[in-house]
Amino acid sequence: MKYQAEMPRKLGIIAGGGALPGQVAAAARAAGRAVFILGLEGFADPAVVAPWPHEIRRLGAAGRIIAALRQHGCQDLVMIGPIRRPSLLDLRPDAEGAKLLARVGRAAFAGDDGLLAAVIRVLTEEGFRVIGAHEIIREVVAPAGVLTQTQPDAQAMSDIDRGVQVARMLGAADVGQGCVVQQGLVLAVEAIEGTDAMLLRAGALRRDGIGGVLVKLVKPSQDKRADLPTIGPDTVRNAAAAGLRGLAFEANATILAEREACLAAADAAGLFLLGLDPETLKGDCQ
Amino acid sequence: MKYQAEMPRKLGIIAGGGALPGQVAAAARAAGRAVFILGLEGFADPAVVAPWPHEIRRLGAAGRIIAALRQHGCQDLVMIGPIRRPSLLDLRPDAEGAKLLARVGRAAFAGDDGLLAAVIRVLTEEGFRVIGAHEIIREVVAPAGVLTQTQPDAQAMSDIDRGVQVARMLGAADVGQGCVVQQGLVLAVEAIEGTDAMLLRAGALRRDGIGGVLVKLVKPSQDKRADLPTIGPDTVRNAAAAGLRGLAFEANATILAEREACLAAADAAGLFLLGLDPETLKGDCQ
């Protein structure tokens, strides 16, 4: 009995888009865990989930999702990879899904944080333990400090300070995680359009002279098990195309997807990547 | 001497884009004031300023601007009409402009509120009295209450509440005045791209089901003499094209440019226009 209790707990991965669900699966298996991926239809990349035991289900089919996770013996759950927040019409909940939605309640209609916190609460009540992807794939979590050859100069640090102030406000209102600041001017603020769309806009709105910075922070009320800010090589390339000089993000709470490719893209374009110390960020808080 | 002191003070109008500078000029003249328009090059519409005594000057030519306003005997000043905030490179200040810029100081590099407050301070130090456009053209200032045939329903009021919360946060950070909310979800947040660009984006990001609302508020730190939120017929038409159901804005502090055309466009599209009572907004404040 003792040995059974020490068996690694089987990991269920509720997968949105991108390559991270596969990376989480690989890291969990390397650590001796069995894994099962529940790919969300329309978001999970079939090529990413194909190598692993998996099922594809609609987000609204919450009853089928929970049944599949139970049937495959998942004890721990990770939610990873972007999904587009559906309208209630898109959701078309199944019978069990409608009951769960009722339990999620008004939170489903509020900001993302409320929704995700409620989803985590419901999954926990169903007997699963929800953990953060960063607990499985620690090596993809961005550390503090400058990660690139290029260092931020005084103007960049000043723009980062302004960006941190704005991103913290946005986060407090549960609106978004990111903004672009150039020469003290807030060029763009991220709501649900996503970072890449915001970067495209910031490129069109940029002023002459010294380029700006992208700042992404975890929202203060955000559950790190649900929706960590993610930066990938495309983010870096889009930032470069928008005329930015670098990216600043919260260390220990940001996923650098394909880290080597991120650093290579940044170094090739002369951009800096700066992990901001969460303690310093807290100290700044007014 | 008594009668001279009671002569209406001559009004200088520092004009950005749109039709409002002409409306301010007409209202001032109707009230018995002499007027002079200083049109900002690249922003002021030549057709709007043409009927009035005017000069066109670069924004950076602050020395020439102040000299022209003095030479034409302007005592009161109004700043009206949108300008795109220039980069320092675009600005190319003249000799006097460079001195003024030094007096504006660090505020020029911060948010809009700081910059505009500093510009007002400098103009006041130069002997002008800066007044708000809404003091000249009271009839274009939006009153409280529903102005249209369509009334906001409970879902719209709930979206407006969320929008007010977000817009107040944005304003406190001196980022922008507006946002779009649909079914509790913040679709888009306005930075420097302007309301029309935000509405276009919100249209592309909208979810199925009941449409959203546009909320525009005065920033808490905003000097009402500098930059009142403005809604025109194009704003209404763009909101309709984005699938919105209405616009909510701060009463007594929002300019409804071409009011009749705004109301006609809203009624034609079945949108509501709602002036939010500033006292109620203050009461909401947390």
The average pLDDT value of chain A, as a whole number, equals 86
Helix residue percentage of chain A: 40-55%
Give the helices and strands of chain A as they follow along the chain: HEHEHEHEHHHEHEHEEHEEHEEHEH
Q: Using a beta-carbon cutoff below 8 angstroms, give the protein chain pair with the largest interface and the number of residues from each chain.
A: A-B, 36 and 36 residues
Shape of chain A: globular
Number of strands of chain A: 13
- What's the helix count of chain A? 13
Ranges of chain A where pLDDT stays below 50 over 5 or more residues in a row are: none
In terms of quaternary structure, what is this? homodimer
Q: Kindly, what is the distance between the CA atoms of the first and last residues of chain A, rounded to a whole number of angstroms?
A: 53 Å
Beta-sheet strand percentage of chain A?
15-25%
Helix/strand/pairing category of chain A:
alpha/beta
Sequence of strands across the biggest β-sheet of chain A: 6-13-11-9-7-8
Report the radius of gyration of chain A as a whole number of Å: 20 Å
Description:
The structure is a homodimer of 286-residue chains. Chain A is an alpha/beta fold. In chain A, 41% of the residues lie in helices and 18% in strands. Chain A contains 13 helices and 13 strands. Chain A has helices at 2-5, 20-30, 46-49, 62-71, 88-91, 95-104, 112-125, 133-136, 154-172, 195-205, 233-241, 259-269, 278-284, and strands at residues 11-15, 35-40, 54-57, 76-80, 129-130, 145-146, 178-182, 185-189, 213-216, 230-231, 246-250, 255-256, 272-276. In chain A, the strands form 3 sheets. Chain A has a 6-stranded mixed sheet. The first copy, chain A, has a 5-stranded parallel sheet with strand order 3-2-1-4-5, with helices on both faces. In chain A, helix 11 (233-241) packs parallel to helix 12. The radius of gyration of chain A is 20 Å and the shape is globular. The termini of chain A are far apart. The mean pLDDT of chain A is 86. At the A-B interface, helix 5, helix 9, strand 8 and helix 10 of A face helix 5, helix 9, strand 8 and helix 10 of B.
